[in-house]
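Per your request, structure below.
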């Protein structure tokens, strides 16, 4: 295995641990500990850390230690605003094409949160991602899934987002978007997606008020 391949492997493992919350925000790490943890020499590890630093996932402290960065509320809200602009346009465009099998499947899974009261974050996170990707695919926007994956990876790191345990409201909003697309009503689809992100912003701020 080449040094570059080792670096990529270390990058993916560390990034996944941070995104999944296995390494918590504000954790302080050292190169020595990470090298032992990953079974790597310092050279590929430093390359991996440089990639994470460029993505602003970590930062170097003055003493050389590594800090796992917290996702700020401002950053979170900026992402919501950006995604609202992109995804309301996608929903509007998708309504021009109509319902897809992926959207039908997403609708069934979202309804389960209303009927069964599911509250598992990891399951909902996957279903939430599938819904948003299904809208992007229905809109036939090939670049949008990659943009969403990048922004969702940042959101996933937020302890505020991971603290959610009730998803009925979000599921109801998702269903409203799908129903508008199924009805081939572009204006309603756009409005439903915009409302979804407005509510996401409101829920996030409410969660912060409780902490």
């Amino acid at each position: 295995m080449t040094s570059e391949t080792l670096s990529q492997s270390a990058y993916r493992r560390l990034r996944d641990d941070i995104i999944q919350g296995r390494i918590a925000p504000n954790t302080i790490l050292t190169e020595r500990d990470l090298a032992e943890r990953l079974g790597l020499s310092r050279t590929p590890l430093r390359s991996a850390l440089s990639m994470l630093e460029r993505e602003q996932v970590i930062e170097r402290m003055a003493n050389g230690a590594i800090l796992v960065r917290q996702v700020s509320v401002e950053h979170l809200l900026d992402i919501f605003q950006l995604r609202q602009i992109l995804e309301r346009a996608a929903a509007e465009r998708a309504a021009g094409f109509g319902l897809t099998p992926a959207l039908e499947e997403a609708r069934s899974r979202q309804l389960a949160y209303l009927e069964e009261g599911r509250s598992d974050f990891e399951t909902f996170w996957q279903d939430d991602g599938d819904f948003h990707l299904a809208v992007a695919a229905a809109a036939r926007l090939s670049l949008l899934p990659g943009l969403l994956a990048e922004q969702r990876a940042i959101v996933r790191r937020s302890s505020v987002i991971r603290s959610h345990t009730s998803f009925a409201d979000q599921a109801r909003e998702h269903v409203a978007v799908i129903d508008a697309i199924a009805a081939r009503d572009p204006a309603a689809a756009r409005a439903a997606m915009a409302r979804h992100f407005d509510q996401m912003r409101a829920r996030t701020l409410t969660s912060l008020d409780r902490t």
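The first strand starts at residue 28 and ends at 29.

Regards,
D.
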